[in-house]
């Protein structure tokens, strides 16, 4: 069964790449496209929700651009391929003959390729970037990282960008075969979560939504997120996953992802609030999405 599923994921990956080469990447087309018929995992969250940290934790590498404002300005189709051994590497669809083994260069290429379409402006584009990562430390999975939902246009952006981003994200998550990875920070009221609000609109029964609660360690002292994680505040058909993000200081110090994962495991294992949920929390144990 596992081999059959891996073969299916590989087929979907190849079809998605072919669609992009042929100019089919969904979006606002009047008619349904092959791209839109393919299954996908859409990663959705507001700005500063911890979305980038979640993706990097799943991959186990630092490779995404960071900064203030809208950092993700094009959809990033991230295809993970598990290999038995050997050196981890990455490849871009637009650079088919180049293999990246230094992941800081992957980050730079994402930035450069984004600017190639959007210019140095703060505009967004629906044209996806395809990135494949080959590693013994990942599972076979395809995820689509989408621009962060926002409520305010910053200087240099048209006011319409708020609606433009929501429409782009909605075009991915409203597909009935799209799994929604809804990222929300624990140090904000879940009722105000942009990701959950949108997921509820397109998936009112929560059948294809996976809730991810980030920044658990940044909650006010004496508070916790048990009501959310146990599904009492907002119920989904699938269990919520709690995450402890790397701090900005850790990121600036280039703290290894393996070290960060170990600290995260220790946090949940020793937490008086979350210890009983430790086996299904965190970047490693939490993201075993059933297909």
UniProtKB/TrEMBL annotation:
Top-level taxonomy: Eukaryota, Viridiplantae, Streptophyta, Embryophyta, Tracheophyta
Signal peptide coordinates: none
GO (cellular component) term, any one: cytoplasm
Domain Dynamin-type G, first and last residues per copy: 35-291
GO function terms (MF aspect): GTP binding; GTPase activity; microtubule binding
SUPFAM superfamilies: P-loop containing nucleoside triphosphate hydrolases
Protein name: Dynamin-type G domain-containing protein
Pfam families cross-referenced by the UniProt entry: Dynamin_M, Dynamin_N
Gene3D superfamilies cross-referenced by the UniProt entry: P-loop containing nucleotide triphosphate hydrolases
The keyword Transcription regulation is assigned to this record: no
Family: Belongs to the TRAFAC class dynamin-like GTPase superfamily. Dynamin/Fzo/YdjA family.
Keywords assigned by UniProt, alphabetized: GTP-binding, Nucleotide-binding
InterPro entries according to UniProt: Dynamin (IPR022812), Dynamin_GTPase (IPR001401), Dynamin_GTPase_CS (IPR019762), Dynamin_N (IPR045063), Dynamin_stalk (IPR000375), G_DYNAMIN_dom (IPR030381), P-loop_NTPase (IPR027417)
């Amino acid at each position: 069964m596992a081999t059959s599923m891996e073969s299916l994921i590989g087929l979907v990956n190849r079809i998605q790449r072919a669609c992009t080469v042929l100019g089919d990447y969904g979006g606002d087309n009047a008619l349904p496209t092959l791209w839109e018929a393919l299954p996908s995992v859409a990663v959705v969250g507001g700005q500063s929700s911890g979305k980038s940290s979640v993706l990097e934790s799943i991959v186990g590498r630092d490779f995404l651009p960071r900064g203030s404002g809208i950092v993700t300005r094009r959809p990033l189709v991230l295809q993970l391929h598990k290999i038995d051994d050997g050196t981890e590497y990455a490849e871009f669809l637009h650079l088919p003959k180049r293999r990246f083994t230094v992941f800081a260069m992957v980050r730079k290429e994402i930035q450069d390729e984004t600017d190639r379409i959007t210019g140095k402006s703060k505009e967004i584009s629906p044209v996806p970037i395809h990135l494949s990562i080959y590693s013994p430390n990942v599972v076979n999975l395809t995820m689509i990282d989408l621009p962060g939902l926002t409520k305010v246009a910053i200087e240099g952006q048209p006011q319409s960008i708020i609606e433009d981003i929501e429409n782009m994200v909605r075009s991915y998550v409203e597909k009935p075969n799209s799994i929604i990875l809804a990222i929300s920070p624990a140090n904000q009221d879940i009722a105000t979560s942009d990701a959950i609000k949108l997921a509820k609109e397109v998936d009112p029964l929560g059948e294809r939504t996976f809730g991810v609660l980030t920044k658990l360690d940044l909650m006010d002292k004496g508070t916790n997120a048990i009501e959310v994680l146990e599904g009492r505040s907002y119920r989904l058909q699938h269990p919520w996953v709690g995450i402890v993000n790397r701090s900005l200081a850790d990121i600036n110090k280039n703290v290894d992802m393996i070290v960060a994962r170990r600290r995260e495991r220790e946090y949940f294992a020793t937490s008086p609030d979350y210890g009983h949920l430790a086996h299904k929390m965190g970047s490693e144990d939490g993201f075993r999405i059933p297909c």
